[in-house]
Design brief:
The structure is a single chain. The protein is α/β, with parallel strands linked by helices. 41% of the residues lie in helices and 24% in strands. It is built from eight helices and 14 strands. The protein has a five-stranded parallel beta sheet with strand order 2-1-3-6-7, sandwiched between helices. The protein has a four-stranded antiparallel beta sheet with strand order 8-9-10-11, with helices on one face. It is elongated.
Length: 227
């Protein structure tokens, strides 16, 4: 999961981002509303961790900004204000959940996973398409019930393809989703091609169908019409 953390407390932001990185997330940090808005317009995130009290305004304004810009990221509000009004406003404005500070990092992790399962996987920890199944809890990928020997990045990329099946995904968007927005300045994305090649090879070795098609000049698409 790619996460944008909007939090002005540098020490807390560092603690959260380091924890999430250890759990396999891509976590980027904004310390104010203006920078957060720039990032939200420029990059895609699965979830936004949003502090309410920010130096340049009320973080709840981010919710209306995201709605206006039609940004579909999930939103988990983090706030030291244990106010029922703030919770109600946040949830009514489109937030998916609310966590009051102080909180334990494993609870934050659990809330993020729950949001992802609910919004992306219909509440399940298993996502499957035909002979391919992925378990996001155990990070196991199976084809025809054969366990594939996959790296974490290969697993994440295959999950990204299936969640976004039948959509053209550019090499740049794949790189940014899996490695963060620093890849925006890279001259090429040959490493994406290599990961896609490895996934195709492992699926084919388990007698699975290669659903990942190359869209020349654009990127790749997980094509469900292939049989």
């Amino acid at each position: 999961m790619k996460v944008l953390l909007i939090e002005d407390n540098v020490e807390l932001a560092s603690s959260i981002s380091e924890f999430l990185a250890r759990e396999g997330y891509i976590c980027e940090v904004s310390y104010n509303i203006r920078d957060a808005q720039d990032r939200l317009i420029s990059f895609q995130y699965d979830c936004v961790l949003l502090d309410i009290m920010l130096p340049d305004g009320n973080g709840l304004g981010i919710l209306s900004f995201m709605r206006t810009e039609r940004i579909q990221s999930s939103i988990l509000i983090l706030s030291a204000k244990n106010s029922l009004d703030d919770k109600v406003i946040g949830l009514e404005e489109g937030a998916d959940d609310y966590l009051t500070k102080p909180f334990h990092l494993p609870e934050l992790h659990a809330r993020l996973r729950a949001i992802y399962r609910r919004k992306k996987l219909n509440g399940s920890n298993i996502i499957a398409f035909n002979e391919i199944s992925l378990n996001i809890d155990t990070l196991e990928a199976r084809v025809n019930d054969v366990l594939l020997d996959m790296t974490r990045k290969e697993f994440d990329l295959l999950l990204y393809f299936i969640v976004n099946k039948n959509r053209v995904l550019s090499r740049q968007s794949i790189a940014a989703h899996l490695w963060g927005d620093y890849t925006d300045n890279l001259a090429n994305f040959d490493f994406v091609y290599q990961h896609v090649k490895n996934i195709r090879k492992k699926i084919s070795a388990a007698n699975g169908t290669d659903y990942i098609g190359t869209v020349y000049g654009l990127g790749y698409k997980f094509n469900t019409s292939k049989q």
